[in-house]
Amino acid sequence: MTTSIAAGSGNLHFRATIYRGQACKQASWVSGIAFQRCIQKDLSCCDILYNFLGQFGVSKFLQIQGCHFSQSPIYENWKTLRTVTASCLRDGSTKYFDFAIIGSGVAGLRYALEVAKHGSVAVITKAEPHESNTNYAQGGVSAVLCPLDSVENHMRDTIVAGAYLCDEETVRVVCTEGPDRIRELIAMGASFDHGEDGNLHLAREGGHSHHRIVHAADMTGREIERALLEAVVNDPNIFMFEHHFAIDLLTSQDGSDTVCHGVDTLNTETQEVVRFISKVTLLASGGAGHIYPTTTNPPVATGDGIAMAHRAQAVISNMEFVQFHPTALADEGLPIRPTKARENAFLITEAVRGDGGILYNLDMERFMPLYDERAELAPRDVVARSIDDQLKKRNEKYVLLDISHKPRERILSHFPNIAAECLQYGLDITHQPIPVVPAAHYMCGGVRAGLEGETNVQGLYVAGEVACTGLHGANRLASNSLLEALVFARRAVLPSIDHKNSSFLDLSASNWWARPVVPMSLGSSAMQKILRRTREMRKELQSIMWDYVGIVRSTTRLKTAEHRIGELEATWEEYLFQQGWEPTMVGLEACEMRNLFCCAKLVVSSALARHESRGLHYTIDFPHLEESKRLPTVIFPCSPVNSTWSSRLLHKPHLC
Predict the structure, then answer these.
(1) Cellular component per GO (predicted)?
(2) How far apart are alpha carbons 583 and 648 in whole angstroms?
(3) CA dihedral 132, 135, 137, 140 (to 10 degrees)
(4) Distance between CA atoms of residues 411 and 416, nearest Å
(5) Can you name the residues that pair with 225 across neighbouring β-strands?
(6) Pair type for strands 434-443 and 322-329
(7) pTM for this predicted structure
(8) Can you say whether the dihedral through the CA atoms of 418, 424, 429, 430 is positive or negative?
(9) Is 432 helix (H, G, I), strand (E, B) or coil?
(10) End-to-end alpha-carbon separation of the chain, Å?
(11) Catalytic positions, please?
(12) Could you say which of 77, 108, 363, 534 would form a disulfide bridge with 101 (CB–CB 3.0 to 4.6 Å)?
């Protein structure tokens, strides 16, 4: 792994050459001939229907087959069928699609709805379709929708919050195109809050100079996810694969170019390895919050997309910039403590401070004006460091966020979800302050992307938190994440269609790579030992990251983390292999663990490379901004020599 501060302008943009399959000129896309192949198997019309819903959708299939069906329970529920049978192969272990999308958050679903107009689409999701960071996004989406606001204002706020590391062209594109993306959501049925004047109610959050946050109470992400999922369900070209964990991207080497041909997945319900061969792959798999012990991210956010892309030779950028949300609910401060630990911290949205919430220490002393003239409306990195400083100076576990001075009706209408959650534990936020503590929240770095979501791996596009587009710089401005996902999901569509139309794959493509193996042969005793040790190691890795790679860092602590993570990973891998595990074996928790190790190392490596304090990366050894360092951190593809299990593909790339 080679880490460096990029030379030159620091511009993130580059354009990947479209792969035109020169080495496979005789190949043709499976959807063009799969029908004849299955006819040769002498299947009945209904057998073909079961096998081809995933290839064509019902209407396209009926058009090709010339069949006529009456409305029957099977026909009415065909959407359910197509979530599990999407290939003409009888064993279902390989599935062919024009577009494969990894992730079912706002980026993946918005992209799916557009590319579905041009081909078959597989949406591969690790858990339930709604289980994504999008669903947990409370605050809203920022966009210039008020006459008193402007694109220039939004750009300035974004760049200031990003500590001037943002790519200006990316910022302009996102701030300019954002309003149209919001209008599209509304046209699709997303319902946002309106004011008494009938116009959209625009909130304000930390770092914003104007009211520009479109929201649905404090459940905006959930409402957007609902609207998008509803549209996806009604689209006959989109096929949802639930509980399919993405293992590794399938790549080939065409000279010096790396080309992506799809992804291997593990069906975690059937324990079957399922291979997706696709002309275009979109990574929209979210972030890596669970490299830390306390995170607002759902359990699925284990850095799978970033780690997979890194192993597949994609360039990674700006991983040192981990955003800690200043205000996650501190369970220790609740009148009634939760009976069991949460899988992810409950977020107290930025909008509470934007709506007038005030931060106090446990002596009810307001402290934010001591740190920044913007007080509670300072950007997240400033507020998180300020809270961290208070906690360390006072040796306390949490601070208090008070909104109770606002009218009760206003609090309950703006923050019904937060009010209900707190009330479960004996806390009435209309009368009492909320105990809060910082928690890992968002990765500003990720897979390096150009203005159309393209990566240096041909056929691989990225959107959402997994991507590093240059928008966020060193610190994401509040409510810019959903906006970025919407804009780049749309911008990746046209190049994806062009790539799809110019790509060819041989029918034997599925045999180019050895398949991962489910470790059934190890026996239950060995597997229980592996699972138990893996869970212990996961907690230890998270503890190292929080203690040494947290909100405030130092070179000594980062080097300690680097050493300890390396030792921990080696110990874990040695234990696995002692139990009979082999490098080609896959299991959900083991593969998540290798991804967590990979992402943790990327964060530490990037943090060590930046010799200044900028945005979310604050180090006591280099406490000041350095203009000469105002460049992105870049991690180039890793060498397979002496690499660990977490940093290499389970199979060798195919050579064209």
Answers:
(1) chloroplast
(2) 10
(3) 130
(4) 8
(5) none
(6) antiparallel
(7) 0.85
(8) positive
(9) coil
(10) 25
(11) 380
(12) 108
